[in-house]
């Protein structure tokens, strides 16, 4: 994706460069046409003592729009107009021109007029008021007021081509972004299907084996075995039920905000109760959860059940992503006049910075290839964020790969 963006940027820069080159070439061609027209004028009218005189000796460019031509005599207006129009047409100078002839004896313009061309696209100017440039000789002043517009019009083909290319590149960029997004969503979908299959296939296989044992003749005469496989059935059923409930809760949370019922809750007690609910899981992983409560006994207005699910999800994630004896620290703190914070810090494998921004996306899990040693659908953190947002709170992540991760929740006091 980055390579495509660089290529598109280079193409745009190349287009701008060539447009600039074309503009310069059109400028040169225009200047050449004007100079040739002036040289032709010298051949048509006796306005210089030596027609063989170098053109740069009698022509001076005052600015990009104005040419000053030294004269040895002042021709009539009709003569200048006739021959100048003819020379412009011969050398393809189709830009309208303000013409003035300066009389050195009078120290003023002898006459001024507006010379429009056959291809003129601008209204006729009836009043010409060119500034007098005082010289010690007569001169012809040619001013092209629409010179820049004329050159741009001559470049119209190139401009349209560049605009079309720009539109094509914009369309290509949008298509690439769409394809990239679709690829990302397809990968998420594939990961979800893989995880879904893994999550349900194993417990179903275990339940089938246990079921086959329980329907064997004479199993009633083996109470220990009956109890063992019945327990397995119950545990696996509960596991599947929990996974289905998570899916349903996530589906129910598809709206922008969850429906929650707030009530006063003692934060210390709420978090402790959440820890107690997953005490068996903590023991099964040989983990340790330390809770540092706030001695001020903070009270928040929250949906108790949803907030406990948030704590449970975060602790479960911490237990899953710790390879050796999980050490989890939960700290409650009065941060300011507006917020209480809940920090859940672990000693797990950590998260790469590039993956952190996707963590709260539905079905997203940190890529591990085809290894499925960590269970789950990638729904927990998405649910966590929705619950916190429904409480008008904030959640942030700070993680160092190989060191651990900290999730920090901020809940408003009111």
Written description of the protein model:
There is one protein chain. The chain is an alpha+beta fold. The chain folds into three domains: 2-154, no CATH class; 157-252, Helix Hairpins (Orthogonal Bundle), CATH 1.10.287; 263-412, Histidine kinase-like ATPase, C-terminal domain (Heat Shock Protein 90). Helices cover 50% and strands 18% of the residues. It has helices at 2-44, 55-58, 77-90, 147-154, 156-214, 223-252, 267-277, 279-284, 304-320, 353-356, 380-390; strands at 59-63, 66-71, 97-103, 108-115, 138-143, 263-266, 288-292, 299-302, 327-334, 339-345, 394-400, 404-412. The chain has a five-stranded antiparallel beta sheet with strand order 1-2-5-3-4. Helix 1 packs across helix 3, helix 7 (267-277) crosses helix 9 and helix 9 (304-320) runs antiparallel to helix 11 (380-390). The relative contact order is 0.08. Mean pLDDT is 81; it is low at 369-373.
Strands in their spatial order, largest beta sheet: 1-2-5-3-4
- The total domain count is 3
* Shape label: elongated
- The number of helical runs is 11
Mean pLDDT: 81
Contiguous uncertain segments of 5+ residues: 369-373
Work out the strand percent: 15-25%
Number of strands: 12
Order of SSEs: HHEEHEEEHHHEHHEEHEEHHEE
């Amino acid at each position: 994706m980055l390579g495509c963006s660089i290529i598109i940027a280079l193409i745009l820069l190349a287009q701008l460069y060539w447009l600039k080159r074309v503009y310069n070439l059109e400028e040169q061609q225009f200047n050449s046409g004007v100079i040739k027209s002036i040289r032709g004028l010298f051949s048509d009218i006796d306005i210089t003592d030596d027609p063989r005189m170098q053109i740069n000796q009698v022509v001076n460019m005052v600015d990009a729009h104005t040419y000053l031509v030294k004269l040895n005599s002042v021709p009539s207006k009709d003569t200048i107009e006739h021959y100048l129009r003819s020379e412009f047409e011969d050398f393809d100078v189709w830009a309208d021109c303000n013409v003035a002839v300066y009389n050195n004896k009078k120290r003023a313009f002898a006459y001024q007029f507006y010379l429009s061309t056959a291809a003129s696209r601008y209204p006729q100017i009836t009043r010409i008021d060119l500034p007098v440039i005082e010289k010690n000789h007569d001169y012809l002043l040619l001013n092209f007021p629409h010179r820049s517009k004329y050159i741009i019009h001559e470049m119209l083909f190139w401009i349209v081509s560049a605009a079309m290319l720009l539109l094509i590149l914009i369309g290509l960029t949008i298509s690439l972004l769409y394809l990239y997004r679709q690829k990302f969503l397809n990968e998420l979908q594939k990961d979800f299907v893989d995880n879904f299959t893994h999550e349900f296939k194993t417990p179903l296989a275990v339940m089938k084996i246990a079921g086959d044992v329980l329907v064997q003749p004479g199993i009633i005469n083996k109470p220990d075995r009956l109890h063992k496989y019945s327990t397995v059935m119950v545990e696996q059923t509960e596991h599947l039920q929990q996974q289905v409930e998570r899916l349903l809760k996530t589906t129910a949370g598809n709206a922008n905000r969850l429906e929650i019922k707030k009530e006063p809750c003692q934060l210390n007690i709420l978090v402790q109760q959440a820890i107690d609910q997953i005490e068996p899981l903590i023991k099964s992983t040989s983990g340790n959860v330390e809770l540092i409560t706030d001695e001020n006994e903070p009270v928040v207005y929250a949906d108790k059940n949803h907030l406990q699910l948030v704590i449970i999800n975060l602790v479960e994630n911490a237990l899953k992503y710790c390879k050796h004896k999980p050490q989890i620290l939960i700290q409650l703190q009065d941060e300011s006049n507006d917020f209480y914070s809940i920090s859940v810090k672990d000693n797990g494998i950590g998260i790469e910075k590039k993956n952190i921004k996707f963590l709260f996306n539905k079905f997203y899990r940190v890529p591990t290839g085809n290894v499925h040693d960590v269970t789950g659908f990638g729904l927990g953190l998405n649910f966590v964020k929705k619950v916190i947002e429904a409480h008008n709170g904030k959640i942030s992540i700070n993680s160092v790969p190989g060191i651990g991760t900290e999730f920090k929740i901020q809940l408003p006091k009111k």
